[in-house]
Design goal:
Layout (H helix, E strand, L loop, with lengths): L2 H5 L6 E5 L14 E6 L2 E6 L2 E9 L6 H6 L9 E2 L1 E8 L2 E16 L4 E11 L8 E10 L2 E10 L6 E4 L4 E5 L4 E3 L10 E8 L9 E7 L9 E6 L3 E5 L10 E3 L5 H4 L2 E8 L3 E6 L2 E7 L11 E3 L12 E9 L5 H9 L10 E5 L11 E12 L4 E13 L4 E8 L10 E7 L4 E2 L1 E4 L4 E7 L15 E10 L5 E10 L10 E3 L11 E5 L8 E10 L2 E10 L2 E2 L2 E2 L1 E6 L11 E5 L6 E3 L10 E4 L22 E2 L13 E10 L4 E10 L5 E10 L5 E11 L3 E2 L6 E3 L4 E2 L1 E6 L2 E7 L9 E7 L6 E4 L15 E14 L2 E3 L3 E10 L3 E9 L6 E2 L4 E12 L10 H9 L5 H9 L3 E5 L1 E5 L3 E5 L4 E6 L4 E9 L5 E7 L2 E4 L11 E5 L4 E9 L5 E8 L7
Parallel strand pairs: 31-33, 35-40, 64-66
Antiparallel strand pairs: 1-2, 2-3, 3-4, 4-5, 6-7, 6-25, 7-8, 8-9, 9-10, 10-27, 11-12, 12-23, 13-22, 14-19, 14-23, 15-16, 15-22, 16-17, 17-18, 19-20, 20-21, 23-24, 25-26, 28-29, 28-32, 30-31, 32-37, 33-36, 34-37, 35-36, 38-39, 40-41, 41-42, 42-43, 44-50, 45-46, 46-47, 47-48, 48-61, 49-60, ...
Length: 975
């Protein structure tokens, strides 16, 4: 390899995003197009037309950030290509023409791993092949891989199909209603059924398998409800909430496998019992006779049809007028072809009418994949001789290398060994087109899960290369059951623990219970000829002496939606805040909002999940039909996953017509007092829209507040307490200008600890608006407008308050050319000292002196309204502090500061040997927050400029001013 090429900047990146958004109204009917984009190529895959993707090489030299800013423009002129995934069965050729679902497993800066489910194969005449197909796409910056996984299976439609015994009944779209006679309304009963949900059938996340009498809110109801791959058994004997008489099973892996499941619910006049596959899932005392009702029995949906049908195969549905004992239910499971007694059986549906449906079987089938572009054709095929039976999977992979200098896999050997000398296998996975380290059950010398974790998982990585020049090896570190899933940060280091700056993509999942919690960390590892040694460090709760900051692409596969999700955490006591960048779980941008380092009272533990009031949103606008505009063309740039400053940028639009352009910049720093989520939002309106019932930012009404206080840089403007006469939808604070100088702020300091959820509410979110600029109709407005409305109320002067930043009341419509800039800081604050579990004693003392006070928010407003002077560089941003280094030494004088200030130095030619010093009384005191060696700063490589960034967190609590200097050691001053 040419030496100049070896040392040239290398900007490796890729993107995956939905061109027209994931959540768009059905009435729009825009194609579902997945975009794959890298520095070298672009591709558009239409789920309804897989055979004709659009693809082209791209050599415009765009950087990662430049590609973000251009939205989908780089993919505007792609050429038509051919993607042929073909099956030849009994001499007839079928091609994959469409897919019914897409799952985003990993989408980040380095690699995209996405699968298209339920492929539809058709012949030239349009006939469907009975099969289940899945296409997996793995996209790297310079390669693209297609893997087809196929097995014979039915194209399920409503009606007879193969059952557990003989025929069963398939429900695809139309549920099955069964009318019951009065004598089929027993006071004591057992309901049982077999059900199978094939993977190819759309599940939704919430529907019913069997429902008697309306729904769970109706007296006399019983049945089985399907919720995200688990089942709840319900019955309603007359009053009470729907959860009062319910039993929920734990997540069974078998639902993912699509196997047969036996469900049984019995009631003996006192106890309801729920069984799955003959095993008791739970029992609950209800006590009292079941009321006789005249409602129907429905299979595959709720009786009132207010939910989508639950696709599946049902068999042996039975209702008994007695509570079957556990041993009788177990006998039905173990020998489904036999029924020892029919005593008390009042309803039975076996579905065996008509001819027996037979399983599909193939013989000597051939599978092939061909990808043809204007420049090149890649193809592969394989014949599977003999009989190919239903549910037997076969797989074929096609790798398309876009760069001839890609690493030769046979010329690199990779080894992974933990610090406990535990080796793990590393193999090359053709489907993912990378080396995969399979790390299961690593030994640890520390406690894991939701405890205070100050240790790291550490692994020695070696790459032995026979190549004659430096190359970049595609590598994925796949760890099952990390020590904690919410707060981990993988860092590629030198053998001594010094961060290299190589980006490690942090993708993970805790929803897909079949696999369990896992980390999939991707990297393009720079490898020189010969031996290369690295250390992979994974902090969890702490990095050095401070709680770490982390950001991850959290996959929702297994949780519903099955798209990407952005999750931030401070330490590892649960997530701190999440963003739904595809609106795949709802129609808002901000979802879970929690309280890190919080606890539910002095005797509780801080290292667990707590609430700070669920959710929020960015812009809300509507089309002419009053439908909320959803995201489209949403790209996400993963700049840093942590551990000192996590950072991500979003570029997209609202609406299928791109009515509003959106830019969002999220930063989340390491500290030890409370979480700060910096959210900088920019909206640019491209068309005229009504302002009615819209907002620019929202904090959801989801916890019981007693007061809201808002103010400006000078102090409090107004305090409004919740009064007993308020009711839902009342306006507590009408749209009002927050006058005076910024920063402006909104606080909710007096809150009930528990809102009836499964985790305690020990904190709340306050807003700090550090900058606000807007232009409506050509007029500038430089002060924000606040509105607070009442959600729900309850006795004692408590209400769920929804806070909104809104356009000025006199602005009745957004006009083309209007714009808004919001530079905000979301504070995750506890109400009082007993609810704080962190180590910052300055913060604790403040809380003791000011419990449930707006002063906690105002302390941040004033204390972090920084005045900064820089010598040797340029101040690029005030908070977090960002400095462009220009000289070998950079001096920073700071007036103010609360907690640990995040500070980043950019433009460093070589990060080795740097240290930061505090100047105290003329003496330089070296900052050292290390615990395990070289473990308190963050290094990021900026390949676009071939320079480095270093991030630190400065202790400034209690200091009115401080002075810091960044410099290299005398023997290494190559700035």
């Amino acid at each position: 390899m040419d030496q100049a090429l070896e040392s040239a900047p290398r900007e490796d990146f890729s993107y995956a995003y939905w061109l027209n958004g994931h959540l768009q109204p059905q009435a729009i009917k825009l194609p579902r197009v997945l975009c794959l984009e890298s520095e070298k190529y672009g591709m558009k895959l239409d789920m309804a037309n897989l055979r004709n993707p659009h693809f082209s090489r791209i050599d415009d030299g765009a950087t990662y950030k430049e590609a973000l800013s251009r939205g989908a423009d780089r993919l505007a002129d792609l050429e038509t290509a051919e993607l042929e995934i073909a099956l030849t069965v009994q001499g007839k050729k079928y091609q994959a023409v469409s897919a019914n679902g897409v799952r985003m497993w990993e989408v980040g800066r380095i690699a995209q791993h996405i699968d298209f489910n339920d492929l539809q194969f058709k012949d030239d005449a349009g006939n469907l092949l009975d099969c289940y197909g899945r296409l997996t796409v793995a996209a790297w910056p310079k390669s693209l891989s297609f893997s087809a996984e196929i097995n014979p299976d039915f194209n399920y439609t409503d009606g007879p199909t193969v059952g557990l015994v003989g025929n069963g009944h398939c429900i695809a779209d139309e549920p099955l209603d069964i009318a019951l006679n009065p004598d089929q309304e027993p006071q004591e009963f057992t309901a049982e059924m077999w059900v199978k949900i094939p993977k190819r059938m759309p599940q939704g996340t919430y529907s019913w398998m069997l429902c008697k009498n309306g729904n769970e809110h109706v007296v006399g109801n019983f049945g089985f409800q399907f919720r995200r791959y688990r089942v709840m058994a319900f019955m309603n004997n007359g009053g009470g909430s729907r959860h009062e008489h319910s039993i929920s099973e734990s997540y069974p892996y078998e639902w993912d496998e699509g196997g047969w499941q036996h469900l049984a619910l019995s009631y003996d006049g006192k106890m309801m019992r729920f069984y799955r596959n003959g095993q008791l899932q739970g029992a609950k005392e209800v006590d009292g006779p079941r009321p006789a009702t005249a409602g129907q029995l429905t299979i595959g949906n709720r009786c009132d049809r207010l939910l989508p049908a639950l696709g599946g195969i049902y068999d042996q549905v039975r209702i008994w007028n007695r509570a079957l004992p556990a041993e009788e239910i177990a006998a039905h499971v173990h020998k489904p072809t036999e029924l020892p007694t029919r005593e008390g059986l009042i309803l039975e549906k076996e579905f065996d009418e008509g001819p027996v449906v037979k399983q599909p079987v193939w013989k000597d089938a051939e599978l092939s994949i061909r990808f043809k572009t204007s420049e090149k054709t890649w193809e592969t095929n394989q014949t599977f001789n003999g009989v190919w039976k239903k549910d037997t999977k076969k797989q074929l992979t096609l790798n398309c290398e876009m760069d001839p200098s890609q690493v030769a896999k046979q010329d690199v050997a990779v080894h992974v060994v933990s610090k406990h000398k535990q080796p793990f296998p590393v193999t090359f996975d053709p489907a993912l087109n990378c080396f995969v380290a399979d790390v299961k059950n690593p030994k640890r010398g520390f406690a894991d899960r939701y405890v205070k974790i100050t240790e790291y998982d550490e692994f020695d990585l070696s790459f032995e290369s026979k190549e004659d020049a430096e190359t970049h090896v595609p590598f994925m570190f796949y760890m099952r059951e990390p020590a904690n899933i919410t707060g981990l940060v993988p860092i590629l280091c030198k053998p001594d623990g010094t961060p290299t700056g190589v980006h490690v993509q942090l993708s993970k999942n805790w929803h897909y219970k079949k696999i369990g919690n896992y980390l999939r960390a991707y990297a393009l590892v720079p490898v020189k000829p010969g031996s290369n040694r690295f250390r992979l460090r994974i902090p969890y709760g702490f990095y050095g002496k401070l709680p770490s900051a982390s950001h991850a692409q959290l996959s929702l596969v297994g949780a519903g939606g099955e798209q990407r999700w952005e999750q931030f955490a401070l330490a590892c006591g649960g997530e701190s805040i999440t963003f739904d960048s595809d609106m795949s779980h709802g129609d808002v941008a901000v979802c879970d909002v929690r309280m890190p380092l919080g606890q539910a009272g002095k005797e509780s533990t801080p290292w667990t999940w707590t609430e700070a009031g669920w959710g929020g949103d960015w812009l809300r606008v509507f089309d002419a039909d009053r439908t909320k505009l959803a995201f489209s063309e949403m790209k996400v740039a993963y700049l840093s996953h942590g551990p000192c400053l996590a950072e991500v940028m979003y570029k997209g639009a609202y609406g299928a017509e791109r009515d509003v352009q959106l830019n969002a910049h999220i930063q989340f720093p390491r500290t030890d007092d409370y979480a700060r989520t910096f959210q900088k939002l920019e909206y640019r309106f491209q068309t005229d829209l009504s302002t009615a019932d819209t907002y620019l930012m929202q904090r959801a009404a989801s916890a019981w507040d007693r007061v809201v206080v808002y103010g400006n840089g000078d102090g409090v403007i107004e305090e409004k307490r919740v009064s007993a006469d308020l009711k839902a939808n009342d306006v507590l604070i009408p749209a009002i200008e927050m006058k005076g100088p910024g920063p402006w702020w909104v606080a909710f300091p007096d809150r009930n600890h528990n809102r009836g959820e499964h985790m305690p509410t020990s904190g709340y979110i306050s807003w700090v608006i550090r900058d606000y600029q807007s232009s409506f109709g050509g007029k500038a407005y430089n002060n924000p407008f606040l509105q607070v409305t009442i959600g729900k109320t309850r006795a004692g002067g408590e209400a769920m308050l929804e806070a909104r930043l809104v356009p000025p009341p006199q602005v009745k419509s957004y006009r083309k050319g209007d714009s808004v800039l919001l530079d905000t800081e979301w504070l995750h604050i506890v109400t009082e000292a007993d609810n704080y579990g962190g180590p910052n004693e300055v913060y604790r003392k403040h809380l003791e002196e000011n419990p449930r006070s707006w002063k906690t928010t105002y302390r941040e407003v004033k204390g972090n309204n920084l005045q900064i002077n820089v010598d040797g560089g340029t101040l690029l941003h005030n908070l977090p502090i960002v400095i462009g280094a220009e000289k070998p030494e950079v001096t920073v004088a700071i007036k103010g500061g609360i907690g640990y200030l995040p500070i980043r130095f950019e433009g460093l030619k070589n990060p080795d040997g740097y240290a930061i010093y505090e100047i105290v009384n003329g003496e330089e005191l070296k900052l050292d927050q290390s615990v395990h060696g070289n473990d308190f700063w963050q290094t990021d490589h900026d390949a676009a400029t071939d320079s480095y960034q270093m991030t630190f967190n400065l202790p400034v609590d209690g200091k009115l001013k401080s002075q810091w200097v960044l410099k290299q050691e005398n023997n290494n001053k190559d700035q």
